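Second attempt. The first submission of RRM domain-containing protein had a stray character pasted in from the spreadsheet, which I only caught after the job came back as garbage. Lesson logged: always re-copy from the clean sequence file. Corrected sequence (102 aa) follows.
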Amino acid sequence: MPNRYQSSSSSARGKKLYISNLHYKVDDEDMDMVFSDCGRKRLESARVHFDEKGRSLGTGEVIFAREEDVVAAVNKYSGRILDGRPLKIHLLREEGNTNANK
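This time the job returned cleanly.
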């Protein structure tokens, strides 16, 4: 499979992934376990989003220390089945100082 998310200088840099379509039983520990093997450095964080009553929203986020680890995670886990559901992974672009000259 080709590397669809290769990093380039023309793309916005990002180290955070938004994960959706999570099974309601997936928790922070599961997310950490799944994504910790992507890259040479440990995750900065991996967490599932919950509502005010403690129920899973079926979404979460993963933050890596290095952009290369994000690319590895997307390529390895996008569409992979976790607890019977295919993971949907979206790169969240970091807000840069794009208006510095305005």
